[in-house]
Every structure is written in structure tokens, then in C-alpha cells.
Amino acid sequence: MHFRIFGLSLAVFLTLACSAPESDQGNIETAGKPNIVIIYLDDLGYGDMSAYGATQLFTPNMDRLANEGIRFTSGYATSATCTPSRYALLTGIYPWRNKDAKILPGTAPLLIDTAQMTVPKMLKAQGYSTGVVGKWHLGLGSGQTDWNGSISPGPNQVGFDYSYILAATQDRVPTVYIHNDRVDKLDPTDPIEVDYQKNFEGEPTGKDNPELTTMKWHHGHNNSIVNGIPRIGFMKGGKAALWNDTTMVDHFLTKAQAFVKSNKEKPFFLYYALQEPHVPRTPNPRFVGKSGLGPRGDVILEADWAIGEFIKTLEEEGILKNTLVIFSSDNGPVLNDGYYDDAVEKNGTHTPAGPLRGGKYSLLEAGTRVPFMVYWKGTVQPQVSDALVCQVDFLSSLAALTGSSIKGQDSENMLDAFLGKSHQGRESLILEATGRTALRKGDWVMIPPHKGNAVLQPVNIETGNLDEYQLYQVTADISQSNNLADSEPEKLKEMVQFYEGIVGK
Ligand code: NG6
Ligand code: CA
User: Fold this and answer.
1) Ligand 2 mean position to 169 CA, how many Å?
2) Res 505: pLDDT
3) I need a surface site. Which of 157, 250, 378, 421 has the fewest CB within 10 A?
4) Is the Cβ–Cβ distance between 200 and 193 less than 8 Å?
5) Could you write out the DSSP letters of every residue in 23-40?
6) Which of 398, 420, 423, 417 is nearest to 408 (CA)?
């Protein structure tokens, strides 16, 4: 028998088909490349883990990564809020360069240009399978998103082969899971509508129907009520697709584990973005009351458990030694972030920011300096590192690890620091909090004068705003209690010049 396809014999056709690169991954050598997992928490503070000094919370699974890996003491998110930090993590670009990189509503379009290089795109080109599970908060669609159709562009257009996400935050609508470009479990006869400006007629809200809420709002968070929790934004329909808040951690964990199991044959990159301990804090009943610190403590213990289960999966699948695990948080801690959830009342002597000053939204250290660990069993030696490193460095560093020559605009190759071969970090880093910036350089932090209140009400966090320069030697004064701007004029001048050289005047 002799087959001919477009005039070629079958044998010639097959030879050509097999030798042609099927995709950009086709010919890439993947042997020896480790799996890469970024475990990312939402609002976990520098002092929220026992390995970073917490005495009122015991986090053995996170601690294991810290104690058996590298525990960075000067590891930073770029920003003191979520969206900008995640933008920088994935793109290697400082978020203050993009005016849209600020806390996004659930209806915001995709923030990352689909032509932009990203960590998952770079790794995909190096032969990796790429996935994101958990909190996204980088916008979806191109403006007028129809939540009942294909929600695109999104994670799958910026480098992820697989995505299973919540669109924005747990306190924002739409309160549904999105699998690749579709709302999961959506009943087409019950379409979803989302609006951040006005309510849908006849739909209850936290503001008008407090009797329907099981969690009370303190500030903001008084729009649509889902599962008894009043949210930010209005939403209607999609009943079958609504998430269950108290099983969210289990749900994402299952997806993360499934991704690992089905991709273990070739190197994979998983960005596992837990939504805890961000509000609303909804621990599964298994964790309610476990911490003694109220729901905020309970959800930290729950996240710790999930991380333990996830690492166990890597072990059981026989790939722990071949997996580089990076752990960090998108911004610093906050107690009252808009609900009456006992976070303040039950906090006791716990210090979510550890010795640092400020918190989420703050330009002071607690806004951006976060737990930051690298764990790679058998390859990375346990140690504490004071190297100055930032999540913006992942792109260039992971490129160097996997044989790519890609370099991100603001992303420095910190691979040796990330692998513990060197304690030499970045020379400097621009920090950002709600659009304001500051400079960390060497042992010093300089915060230029910024307008606005010194304390952000009602979260009760120091913003870092002052109408004069602030200069702290953070290696000697980690709690930023001595402003040396007046006594160290030369240092101040040097810092201001350097800062203006990067950020502008
Ligand atoms: C704020 C919300 C806060 C939280 C934050 C985003 C109000 C009053 N506050 O606007 O609760 O959702 O946005 O947090 O609405 S982040 O970690 O995703 O940046
Ligand atoms: Ca956050």
C-alpha cells in the first residue's frame, strides 16, 4: 500500500513532520531542569511565621521551608499591595512604571500586555509546563468582560498552559472560580452579571440588608452578599458556580496537587497563590478556633497545613528533590482590613509585622519586607541570608537557572543568592506603596516626602508619609525608629540622587 499526501510519500511526510519543531517547546532540552513552584501568600506578614519569630502562631510547614532552605531576612515584594507585587513578580518590571498597576476591581482588564515577557512564558520556552492556581488579581479580558463566555485574555495568554483562579480577591466579585477562560460550573441558564458601579435591581447588599450577613462589614465591603459575606462590587446570577469560602483552601490545594501529578513527567512551573490570610478570613471548620488568635490566626494555620499537604504531594510523587520551591507573600500584614472578624480583638501579643514598622499599604518596611524562602531539598543548603532580594528578580534569576538569556527590565539575576551560593544581593531596590515610592540601598532606606496622612484610617497602619525626608539605617534599626535625615546629610544626598536617577524627580 502506498499513501500519498499532497504528492509526498507517507514515509517522507512522516520524516518531515517529526523533524519540524511542533512548538517552541519541541526541541528544548529539559533534562536536569528542576520543577519550579512559587508558593505565594496574600498579606502574610514578616512576623506571621514561627521561623520569623512568631511565638503565638506555630507554622511548622512554612517553617520547614525556612529552616531546611534559605530564610531571607531582607526579601521584598515590590509593593505593599497585591496587584503591583504580582505584576512585578510575573513580568520583572517595577509596577510603579505602569500607572494601572494598582489594586484592581474584579472587572479590570488584563494588566499584563500579552506581548510582555513573563516568568511562565520564559519557562514555557525552556520546555516547562506552566500553571497558576489561586488568586490572580491582575485583571481579565479586555474591558467589557462577558463572564458567561470566554474570559480572555487572561493567564493563558501571558504564558500559563493551565489556570484555575479567582479573578481578583476573596472579598471582590465575581465570587466564582475560573478554569482557563471559563467560569467553572456555570449554569448557562443562570448567567452572571458583574458591575462595580451600580447594583442589580432587587439584589440585597451588605449596606441595605445587614440582616442577611453572617460577617459584618467595617469599612467598604457592603455591596453584594455572597455566602452571607458582603463583598466589594455587585454581582447577580451564577448560583451554581459560586465558590464556597470555607473550602477554598482545600479546593485550590486539590487543583495544585492535580497539576503536579499530571505534569511530573516533564519540568513544570506552578504559581500557587493562596488567598490567605487576606479578608474575608473564612477558615474551614477544621481550623476554627485552632490558633486562639481568631480567624486571622486560624487561616494562617490553615494555609500552613495546605503547604504541608502540597509538599507531601511532591514527596509522594518522588519529585521533591527535583523541585525548587520559593515561598513569599505579596505584601505585609493588616488586622482590620474591612470586616469585624476579631483580628484586632483576638490578636493578643502577636506581632504580624515582627519587628518592622508599618504594614500593608505602608512605605515603611512592614509593607514590603515579607517572609521569603527558597527550599530545594538536597541542593540548597539550609541557611539564613541577609542578601537584599526581591520578587521582581524571579524572571532573570529563573531564566539563568533554566538556560534562558531573558532578562527583565528591573529584574536582576540573583540566582546565586537564591541558591545560597552567595549572600550578595541587589545593590538597591525601589519600594512602592499605593503609588508612592522609596529607596532601599545597602543598609539604608530613604523615603522622600509624600503628601497624605501619616496613619491610614481605618486600617490603623502608618503609611510612611511625612512632609520631610526620612532616612533609616535599617540593618541597625530594623524598626525604623531613628530618622537620620538630619544627622546624615551626606548619606541622604547620595540616596536622594540615586533615587531620582531611577524614579525621576
Ligand atoms: C482595599 C480593600 C481591602 C483589600 C484591598 C486589596 C476596602 C475598604 N479595602 O481596597 O479590604 O481588599 O483593597 O488587598 O475596600 S490586596 O491584598 O489584594 O492588595
Ligand atoms: Ca495582598
Assistant:
1) 9
2) 86
3) 378
4) yes
5) STTTT---TTPPEEEEEE
6) 398
Establish whether residue 135 lines the binding site of ligand 1, counting it when its CB lies within 6 angstroms of any ligand atom. Answer: no
For residue 103, the ligand 1 atom closest to its alpha carbon is 19
Minimum-distance ligand 1 atom for the alpha carbon of 169? 18
In total, the chain counts a number of residues equal to: 505
Q: How far apart, in whole angstroms, are the C-alpha atoms of residue 378 and residue 257?
A: 22
Query: ω into residue 174 within 30 of 0, thus cis?
Result: yes
For residues 123 and 398, the answer to whether their CB atoms sit within 8 Å is yes
- Nearest residue (by CA) to ligand 1, atom 4, is 337
CA of 330 from ligand 2 middle (Å) equals 5
Compute CA 167 distance to the chain's CA centroid, rounded to the nearest angstrom.
13
Three cell numbers written together for 195: 458591575
∠ Cα 18 19 20 (to 5°)? 95
Give the mean model confidence (pLDDT) for residues 14-36. 62
CA of 149 relative to ligand 2 center, distance in Å:
28
Amino acid, res. 39: I
Task: Label residue 26 by pLDDT band (50, 70, 90).
Answer: low
ipTM of the shown complex: 0.99
Residues 6+ apart with CB under 8 A from 100: 108, 111
CA-to-CA separations, 439 to 428, 432, 473, in angstroms, rounded: 7, 9, 12
Q: What is the DSSP letter of 305?
A: H
Rounded distance, CA 39 to CA 77, Å?
13
Position 246, amino acid: T
Please say whether the beta carbons of 57 and 50 come within 8 A. yes
Q: 278 in ligand 1 pocket by Cβ < 6 Å?
A: yes
As to burial, measured by CB atoms within 10 angstroms (0-12 exposed, 13-18 middle, 19+ buried), residue 421 is: exposed
Atom of ligand 1 nearest to the CA of 42: 17
Asked if residues 115 and 431 have their Cβ atoms less than 8 Å apart, the reply is no
Taking a C-beta distance cutoff of 8 angstroms, is the pair 170, 194 a contact?
Answer: no
**Sign, CA torsion 90/96/97/99:** positive
Distance 361 CA to ligand 1 centre (A): 9
pLDDT of residue 12: 42
Helix (H) / strand (E) element for 339: namely: strand 339-340
337 Cα: distance to centroid of ligand 1 (angstroms)? 7
**Mutate which of 104, 223, 278, 336 for ligand 1 pocket (most atoms within 8 A of beta carbon):** 278
Q: Which phi and psi (to 5°) does residue 288 adopt?
A: -65, 125
Residue 321 to residues 263, 318, 380, 454, Cα–Cα distance (Å): 16, 8, 10, 47
The SS3 of residue 306 is helix
